[in-house]
C-alpha cells in the first residue's frame, strides 16, 4: 500500500497492552475503526454526519495479519484506504507501521444500513463521490 | 461487608491484563457493572427489564480502593450489595476477593433516568421492594 | 462446524456494547481468546501452564465474518475447535451462536514462541497429543 | 481546578461508547491514565523512563463523579494536575470538559513500587523536582 493516502497517527495506550507486554490483538480493531472515522471526517460531516442522516455503517468482515508486536507508547501510523465501494458495501485496507516497519496488515468489509429498519441501504452518493475523488488523488 | 449476600464469580480474562502483568484497574469497573446486572437478574426481568420499561440506570459516582493486584486467570468473587435506595438514586458496594483475600473495595452511585427525556425518575416500586427484601434476608 | 466439540457459553456484557446498541465487533476477539483459554484448560495446566513453562502463544492472524449482531445480555455459545497443529503453529475455528442461530464465524492463527527469546518454538508434545485426542473424540 | 495547568485533548472513540449511546464510565479511567502519561512525558523520559529505571507506578485509589455524559466523537479536554507527592505516593486530579462544560471530576492515588520486588519505593528525586516546578508554574 502506498504511503500517499490517508494516515492516522496514534500512540499505544497502556490500557491497550496485555500481560505479554504488547498491545492486545483486539486493540488493532479499535485503531482501524478510529482510522475509518478520521478518514471519513474529511468529507462533509463524516461518520457522525452519516449517523445523523440515519445511516449506520456495520462491520461485516475483518481480517488482520499480525507481523510484529506493538508496545506501550509506540507511535504508530495506520495507512488507510477505501479499496472498494459498491452499492451498500465498502471495504477498507490498513497497514500498521512503526518507524516505517510494518507491524500488521488488515482489511475490513462494511455495509451501510438504514438506522431504523437495519436493512441495507446504498452508500450516499455524496460520500461515494468524495471517497472516489480522494482515492483517485492518493 | 458480610459474605451472606449476593456474589458474582468471574475469571480474569487475558485481554483484561496489562503490561504490568496484572488486571488493568479499569477492568474492575466492568466487573462491578456485571455484578450489578447479575444482582438485578434475580428480580422480575432485572436490568434488561428495567431498560425495556424505558428506565435507564446511569452511573453518577464510583470509588475503588485497590489493595492487591489480580492476575490473569485468577478466580475472583465480587461480593455485592445494594446499600442505599432512595428516590431516583441507589448505591452499590463491592468487595473483590481471591481465595478469601481482599483485592479491592469499592462503591458506586447510580440514578434512574427516563430513557427518553433523560430526567431522573424514581426507582420502580417493584424493584425497591425486591431489593429491600433481598438485602434484609442477606 | 459440528456441535460435538468444545463450547464456551458467555453473556454479552453491557461494557461490550456500543452506541449502535450491539456488541462491538472487537469484543468477539476477546471472546475467542477466552474460548481458546477455556479449551486449553482441560489439558494439564492449560494456557497458564504453557506460560509457566516459558512458552507464549502469539496471535498471527484473525478473520471474522459477522452475520448478525449480538446484543446486551444475549447468551452466546462459542463453538471452538483446534483445526490445525503443526510445528510452532496452530489454528482455531469458531462459530458464535445464539439459540442455534449463527451470529459470526471466525478463525485465528497462532504461534508458540519462547517467552524469553520470542523465537518460534514447537507446541509442547503433551499439548499436541492432548489436543489431537480431544479433536479426534469430538 | 484552574485551566493554566496541563491538559490532554482527546476524541471519544466509537468503541468507547455503550448501548446507552454515551461513553462508557470505565473509559474515563483509561483517559485519566493517558492524561497522566502525557503529563509525565514532559519530564526526562516520562512514564516510559520510569519503567525503564525499574520503577512501576501502581494505582491504589480512584474516584470519579460523572456530571454529564460524553458522546461519540466529542472533543474532550482533560485538565490534569499532580496534587500531592510524598514518599512513594502521588495523587492526580482531573476535570473532563467539553466546550468549557464539566462532564466529570476525578482524582486518583498512586504509589511507586520497585518493578522486581513490588515493594514501595520513593518517587525518584528528579521527578519530584520536575513535577513540583511544573505545578508551581501552573
How are the strands of the biggest sheet of chain A laid out side by side?
A: 1-3-4-5-2
In whole angstroms, the N-to-C terminal distance of chain A is 11 Å
The largest sheet of chain A is: 5 strands, antiparallel
Computed over alpha carbons, the radius of gyration of chain A is: 15 Å
Number of strands of chain A: 5
Summed up, the helix count of chain A is: 3
Task: Give the low-confidence spans of chain A.
Answer: none
Counting copies of identical and different chains, the oligomeric state is homotetramer
Mean pLDDT of chain A: 92
Strand content of chain A: 35-45%
- Give me the strand/helix succession of chain A: EHHEEEEH
Class inferred from helices and paired strands of chain A? alpha+beta
Helix content of chain A: 25-40%
Instruction: Give the overall shape of chain A, derived from the CA principal axes.
Output: globular
Largest interface: A-C, 18 and 18 residues
Amino acid at each position: 500500500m502506498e504511503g500517499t493516502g490517508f494516515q492516522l497517527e496514534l500512540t499505544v495506550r497502556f490500557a491497550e497492552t496485555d500481560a505479554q507486554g504488547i498491545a492486545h490483538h483486539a486493540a488493532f480493531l479499535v485503531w482501524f475503526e478510529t482510522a475509518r472515522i478520521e478518514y471519513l471526517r474529511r468529507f462533509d460531516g463524516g461518520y457522525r454526519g452519516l449517523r445523523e442522516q440515519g445511516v449506520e455503517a456495520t462491520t461485516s468482515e475483518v481480517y488482520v495479519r499480525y507481523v510484529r508486536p506493538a508496545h506501550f507508547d509506540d507511535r504508530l501510523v495506520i495507512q488507510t484506504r477505501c479499496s472498494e465501494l459498491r452499492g451498500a458495501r465498502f471495504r477498507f485496507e490498513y497497514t500498521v507501521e512503526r518507524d516505517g516497519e510494518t507491524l500488521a496488515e488488515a482489511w475490513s468489509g462494511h455495509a451501510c444500513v438504514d438506522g431504523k429498519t437495519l436493512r441495507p441501504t446504498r452508500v450516499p452518493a455524496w460520500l461515494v463521490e468524495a471517497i472516489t475523488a480522494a482515492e483517485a488523488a492518493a
